[in-house]
Amino acid sequence: MHISLSFFSKRCLFLLILLTLVTGSIHSHRINSDYALLLSSSNFRDRWANSIHAKMKETLMKEFSMNVHAEPLVVWELNNQELVNEKRAYLKQEFDSIPPKIVVIVGDVGWYVCQPLLTNEWKDIPVVVYHTQEHSYSDLKSFCALQEIPDEELISSQKMLEENNVYTIEIPFYIDETILAMKKVIPGMKKLAFISDQRFTCALLRKELLQACENNFPEIEIELLTYPEIDSESMLGKLNEYDIHTGIIFHSWINLSGNSAVDMYYPSERMHRYVSDISKTPVFALADLFPGLLAGGHFPDKSAIEEQTLNLIINLLNGVTPTEREIRITNAATRLSYLYLQNKGIPSELFPKDAVYYDVPLSFWQKHTAYIIAIISLLFFLVLYLRHKRHILLLKKRHTEKEHELSSSYQGVISNMPVIFFKKELLFNEKGETTGIIVSDVNPSFEAFFGVSKKNIVGKRLDSIIKKTPTLNFMLESKIDENVSITIPDVSGQTRHFDKLTFKASNKRFINTFLIDKTDSYKVLLNEQTHKQSLESILDNLPIAAKIKDPDDNMRYLFWNKKAAELFEFPAENAVGKTDYDIMEKDVADMIREEDVELARTGIAQSDIRHFFDSQGKEYFTFQNNNYISMPDNRNWIVYTAWDITDMKIMERDLRKAKEQAEEANRLKSAFLANMSHEIRTPLNAIVGFSSILAHETDEQEKEEYLSIIEHNNELLLQLISDILDLAKIEAGTLDFMYSDVDINKMLKEIEQTSRIKGRKGIEIKAEIPMSALRLYTDQSRVMQVITNFINNAIKFTYEGSIHFGYKKPVNNRIYFYVTDTGTGIPDEKQKNIFKRFIKLDSFEQGTGLGLPICKSIITAMGGEIGVESELEKGSTFWFTIPFDPTVQVQSQNPS
Prior knowledge:
Elements: H1 2-24, E1 35-40, H2 47-64, E2 67-72, H3 81-95, E3 102-106, H4 108-119, E4 127-131, E5 135-136, H5 141-145, E6 155-156, H6 157-161, E7 166-170, H7 175-185, E8 191-197, H8 200-216, E9 221-227, H9 232-241, E10 246-250, H10 261-278, E11 283-284, E12 296-300, H11 302-317, E13 326-328, E14 332-337, H12 338-343, E15 356-358, H13 364-416, E16 420-428, E17 434-442, H14 444-450, H15 454-457, H16 462-468, E18 483-489, E19 495-504, E20 510-517, H17 519-540, E21 545-550, E22 556-560, H18 562-568, H19 572-575, H20 580-583, H21 586-602, E23 606-613, E24 619-630, E25 636-644, H22 646-694, H23 700-732, E26 740-743, H24 744-758, E27 764-768, E28 775-778, H25 780-797, E29 802-811, E30 814-821, H26 828-831, H27 851-861, E31 865-871, E32 875-883, H28 886-893
Parallel strand pairs: 1-2, 1-3, 3-4, 4-7, 7-13, 8-9, 8-10, 10-11, 14-15, 27-29
Antiparallel strand pairs: 5-6, 12-14, 16-17, 16-20, 18-19, 19-20, 21-22, 21-25, 23-24, 24-25, 26-28, 29-30, 30-32, 31-32
Helix pairs in contact: 1-17, 2-11, 3-4, 22-23, 23-27, 24-25, 25-27
């Protein structure tokens, strides 16, 4: 009963949570009250950002009942101005309807990313900025390009902030003090390796480090290990080669060239561990980023910084203007991990005396306090036990005295119990075997339920009673100390449900049995099961994928609905009770596990769009939302919901492609009109002009020359109109093809004769015919159109040499036609565009630039291929292939 009700309440609670997530996820960022906005230049895996977020949430809720909204900027992903603008637009869209009461920015770069928003739309909102560098850059161009900026172009950070409603918390790096601490721990330190990456803040820090070493530690050799100037494997290799006189400072190692946030950030989260493991000497840091995982360094106390920050925020929210706009943190100290230095083999006498240590080993008393207390407690409880034993002996004596008193009231209790009771006496033989059962007592509830009289059954053998009343057959069962469920009809024949409890009496020959009526509870249980089935049906038929994990049980799945099984191609019955490592590939499981750990640690909901392909190669897009839910009974759930947005994403991609096609079509239309306007006007001007002159010319020789010019331009105009009509038919898909049996050799001879008339003097134009006879079932006019176009183009650009054209013997049911010239040739960069519309190699040559695109459309429609091979100043070969049916040859040679 308890188990069933608990399960039912869990399912109801889950449904409520899931429906809340479904209806509320779209409005998760809606702001409807006063709030503070916290921006992290990196993300909230950063220890500083995560810690100040937690303290702000606690303090502002307590002081002002104000929420804190946290947004990661992930500035290393902002590698161009367009991405920076998108990030600003996102912040404005999310928070501009109700602006925050105060903005807190962790990291120098966050200010420069958000500056236009903070100095325009939000100029009256107070801004608190954490920063570490005294100098920075004047704009984001160099930051986005990851370029080094000369010293003369750097400006004071304070100068950029003093004109705005900005207050700063400056946390400087204490480089000199940290190196002094390293020299104490590493005697005779001759070399210092500084590990950092290509981010601009790291570049400023490297300059500061080199300057400090040049001024104060000239005897120490400095080696900069900077990503990507050196990759991770090479950097670790160098560390392995260093001797015990080399000190190491680890600052950061972020891969800005990665394709995703996982590629860029996750290696940095683990790189300090790899560096620490491989180094022969302790690894130090300039900030409190990895407590206990590195040796430490000289830096301020984080809690003191947070206290000053929160005091500043509270004053600003209360309208109190601080006297100083910049707070410089000066309470720094050398803070070292005692256990880390000890594990690195550093003798305790080398430990700096003035340092603050954590992870200090316990003293003897601290180590053994629990054991000492346990021994004292054991002695104390032993004394109590002896006293208790003496007390028990006294109680037994009193109990014996009271037994007689209790036995007198026993019959009254049994008679008035609201449950059915009966008592049996077992009969044994000399071997100890049961030979029979006698009913020794029943209560009034027994008599009323079964309709029997106590005087008719008490003292009689049970087997004889059952013969008269078969419904009492259940009394034969004598399992001791067990709770079983049974069904028994009452005197009216109605079936009731009971829990049967059987116990031995103090006299082992007697057995007491109680029947507790559970009929009403049983009906409730049936009703609950019906509701449970309905609830499971609702969950399984939700249109979204839903999964639940138990973060307290190695992230095992508790629930997996039908949509999840369908979307992720894994049955629910095989997923429940398993981890991601049991059902997925290791690299995918590793990524999901890191997300789960982060979600459990921070409690911050995660959302993302996932793109993947199923086992059949079908493309999917999902919008996934991960939430950490704390239950009233102190249990925790990780709830995943995934919406299938594949259709929306594909439609978005199709719309984008259609937009690009429409823009290209518009561009082609404009190009077409511009070209046609010029190409039509040129021959028309010649025709009109020379026709006018011809009307007044009397010299016959001049007339013939003018007529020749008019005729030539007529041909150009006719060819242009023909090209336009062909192009229109091609666009409309109505280009006609008239197939017939064609004598290819004869066709080429005709083209040869016609082309020689057009060709320049001294140019050899020759048809090359490798077969004595060749017949082809094709459209003769279209094939001639393509070959003639190739030859006309060759004539334009061939000033000496030859133009040969023809075909090669058919291969694999394809026939290859070509036109080869010794002309000027085509540059490599123009060959790939030669078959596009309005492309002309020489803008001074007549022509529309439509001939070759039309040729390509014709050959493609005929099922062939077209192309060009050319070498500059040596000539070109235009070719095409079309299908060849050998049966046509046989039919033509053997007519029926």
